[in-house]
From TrEMBL:
A biological-process GO annotation: xylan biosynthetic process
Database matches in Pfam families: PC-Esterase
Protein family: Belongs to the PC-esterase family. TBL subfamily.
InterPro entries in the cross-refs: TBL_C
Name the record gives this protein: Protein trichome birefringence-like 14 isoform X1
GO CC terms: Golgi apparatus; membrane
Molecular function as annotated in GO: acetyltransferase activity
Domain Trichome birefringence-like C-terminal: 3-89
Species, as recorded: Nicotiana sylvestris (Wood tobacco)
Record flagged with keyword Nucleus: no
Length: 109
């Protein structure tokens, strides 16, 4: 397996979106990915597109319902949406297009 680089990841994900939906564990995965792509640096090609996904901080909230960033060099978007219950996740997914490339049965031992 080749070493992860942000440049290669963005090329493979060109014009795509990677969404993390869930609780604090999903948020940490989202934050780690963004950090690995950017090297922890502020970059002018990273655009905050949270409003496009309805991810805004409502009055009185400590945090928004999530974050979304687009890497303008490849039009790749990654986002995190906080959902605390599975019912809300399914409701949210009905509004999204989900593509699965491969599903494999787990071999019983």
């Amino acid at each position: 397996m080749e070493e992860f680089t942000g440049v290669n990841f963005l090329k493979r994900m060109e014009n795509g979106t990677l969404a993390f939906i869930g609780d604090s564990l999903s948020r940490q995965q989202f934050q780690s990915l963004v950090c690995m792509i950017t090297g922890g640096e502020d970059r002018p090609d990273v655009l905050d597109v949270g409003r496009e996904y309805g991810l805004v901080k409502v009055h009185g909230a400590k945090l928004p319902d999530g974050w979304a960033y687009r890497f303008s060099s490849t039009q790749t978007t990654t986002n995190f949406t906080y959902e605390d219950t599975i019912l809300r996740i399914f409701t949210h997914l009905r509004k999204m297009e989900v593509r699965v490339q491969e599903v494999q049965d787990k071999k019983e031992e």
